[in-house]
């Protein structure tokens, strides 16, 4: 009898392999970072081969550390940084170009060109997304248009495209020797190429983007058996696939319409389950697929995506060397009582929800000689909470339902100062679960459900347990004043790039 369900969690900065028991508790983990490549301002790349190498290393590492036999593993799920785009040769498995990361803004001209006829929202009702550099479709087009010989190969069906999930699953199931080329509805909904209603690639979108259908993966449910692993996980069913934010929603057991979660990672992503019908946003949110379990109807979400949150802390650490390690940000921020009148808007890759302005750039406003490193650290943390408030406001407007509490997860939720400020600025309780690594957990859940390791989503709900809750303590007048100042600061970042 299998004891574990496992997950490959391939994120923006690192790859993890996590092993979960039936109660959803972590029994093994290994994690490795990979290189961030910045060839030009606004360009962000990863080496897809390095990612696959790290994936193999963390699988071996976690199995060894936990002394776990593959005989005890029921299934493996994959979760991934979503819009990051890989194109590779079918025969060799060799990427034709570095992976273009979701944060990359090089496709702004492609997006602007497409927006000339019908505006930024011209495809929104069909694909749920505005025209933005964030999504995979324009990135695939860029590779086809700019890398020699790739378009000809694509038309002959000799190269394959995938978000990182498809790249990992293809390699995991044999690569050039019979690897399966699949993605799930949640990842496909981030490409601008999938029709929200049919859950299939949309012929009109492929034509507009000039992308041959032959290079696209088959779209599957998020929880079903796609194939079987080779290598260290030999013979184990590969049975779960969810984009990282949808995986966190799944891991947080937000299975009912109206339940929401916010993940604090490199960026910040809030998802609200809207049930089995897509809800079109009027307030700058994305309409996206939440998940699909086997042959059950697909579940949709509204999503607010914020590009830079945890990445801002890394920037203070690596670029400004203001702190030695990311966890130093909280003690530094606690050296001051407040933000000293400054607001830090980290529009490094433009602004995502609810603005969608790729021409915005970062700004610190309100600077005086009074301001210290402590104030900058505090303003950097507060930026995450303010951006989350903007997304939550949009969500309340779109859904017509006021959120009563926010379930949170991801690396930054151990920052007590941030979580308290988040509750203060939202005016609702913020709740952290016992297993805060809900992204990997969600992928393990999806895989385990597909093979009967868990029998239903109700099994998963019983696993969820609260670790800590923060309640609002800020005076309402102060909350309104701070938020108003933040909104003013955001306007100072608009239209910076000519």
Which keywords apply here?
498 residues, alpha/beta, six-stranded mixed β-sheet
Written description of the protein model:
It is a single chain. The strands form 6 sheets. Strands 15-16-14-13-19-20-21 form a 7-stranded mixed β-sheet. The chain has a 6-stranded mixed β-sheet with strand order 3-2-1-5-12-11, with helices on both faces. The chain has a two-stranded antiparallel ribbon with strand order 4-7. The relative contact order is 0.13. With 498 residues, the protein is of the alpha/beta class. It has helices at 48-65, 108-115, 124-127, 136-146, 150-155, 164-172, 185-188, 203-209, 244-251, 310-318, 329-333, 373-399, 416-426, 438-450, 457-463, 476-491; strands spanning 4-10, 14-20, 26-33, 45-46, 73-80, 85-89, 99-100, 159-163, 182-184, 218-220, 223-228, 237-243, 260-264, 268-275, 286-291, 299-306, 343-345, 363-365, 406-409, 430-433, 466-470. The chain is 33% helix and 22% strand.
How would you write the strand order of the largest sheet?
Answer: 15-16-14-13-19-20-21
Structural class: alpha/beta
Alpha plus pi helix count: 16
Portion of residues within helices? 25-40%
Low-confidence stretches: none
Seen as an oligomer or otherwise, the chain set is: single chain
Tell me the β content: 15-25%
State the distance separating the first and last CA atoms: 62 Å
DSSP summary, beta strand count:
21
């Amino acid at each position: 009898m299998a004891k574990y369900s496992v997950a490959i969690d391939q994120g923006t900065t690192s790859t993890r392999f996590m092993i979960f028991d039936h109660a959803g508790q972590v029994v093994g983990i290994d994690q490795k970072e990979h290189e961030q490549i910045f060839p030009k301002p606004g360009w962000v790349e990863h080496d897809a081969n390095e990612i696959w190498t790290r994936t193999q290393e963390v699988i071996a590492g976690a199995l060894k550390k936990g002394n776990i036999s593959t005989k005890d593993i029921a299934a493996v799920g994959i979760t991934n940084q979503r819009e990051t785009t890989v194109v590779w040769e079918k025969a060799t498995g060799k990427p034709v170009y570095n992976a273009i990361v979701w944060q990359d803004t090089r496709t702004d001209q492609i997006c602007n060109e497409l927006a000339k006829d019908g505006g930024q929202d011209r495809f929104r009702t069909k694909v749920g997304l505005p025209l933005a550099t964030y999504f995979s479709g324009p990135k695939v087009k860029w590779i086809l248009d700019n890398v020699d010989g790739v378009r000809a190969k694509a038309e002959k069906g000799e190269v394959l495209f995938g978000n990182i999930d498809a790249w990992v699953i293809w390699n995991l199931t044999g690569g050039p020797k019979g690897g399966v080329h699949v993605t799930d509805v949640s990842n496909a909904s981030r490409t601008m190429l999938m029709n929200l209603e049919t859950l299939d690639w949309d012929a009109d979108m492929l034509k507009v983007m000039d992308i041959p259908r032959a290079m696209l993966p088959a779209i599957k449910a998020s929880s079903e058996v796609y194939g079987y692993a080779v290598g260290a996980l030999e013979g184990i069913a590969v049975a779960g696939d969810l984009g990282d934010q949808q995986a966190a929603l799944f891991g947080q057991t937000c299975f009912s319409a109206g339940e929401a979660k916010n993940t604090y990672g490199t960026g910040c992503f809030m998802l609200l389950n809207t049930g089995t019908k897509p809800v079109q946003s009027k307030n700058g949110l994305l309409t996206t697929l939440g998940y699909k379990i086997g042959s059950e109807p697909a579940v949709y979400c509204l999503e607010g995506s914020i590009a830079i949150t945890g990445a801002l802390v890394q920037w203070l650490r690596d670029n400004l060397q203001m702190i030695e390690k990311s966890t130093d940000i909280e003690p530094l921020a606690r050296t001051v009582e407040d933000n000293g009148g400054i607001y830090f808007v980290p529009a490094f890759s433009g602004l995502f929800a609810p603005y969608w302005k790729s021409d915005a750039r970062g700004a610190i406003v309100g600077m005086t000689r009074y301001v210290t490193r402590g104030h900058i650290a505090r303003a950097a943390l507060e930026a995450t909470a303010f951006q989350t408030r903007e997304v939550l406001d949009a969500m309340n407007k779109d859904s017509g339902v006021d959120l009563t509490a926010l379930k949170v997860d991801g690396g930054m939720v151990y920052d007590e100062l941030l979580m308290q400020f988040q509750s203060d600025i939202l005016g609702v309780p913020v709740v952290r679960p016992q297993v805060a690594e809900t992204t990997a957990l969600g992928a393990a859940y999806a895989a385990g459900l597909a093979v009967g390791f868990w029998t239903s989503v109700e099994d998963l709900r019983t696993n969820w347990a609260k670790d800590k809750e923060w309640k609002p303590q800020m005076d309402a007048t102060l909350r309104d004043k701070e938020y108003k100042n933040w909104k003013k600061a955001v306007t100072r970042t608009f239209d910076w790039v000519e």
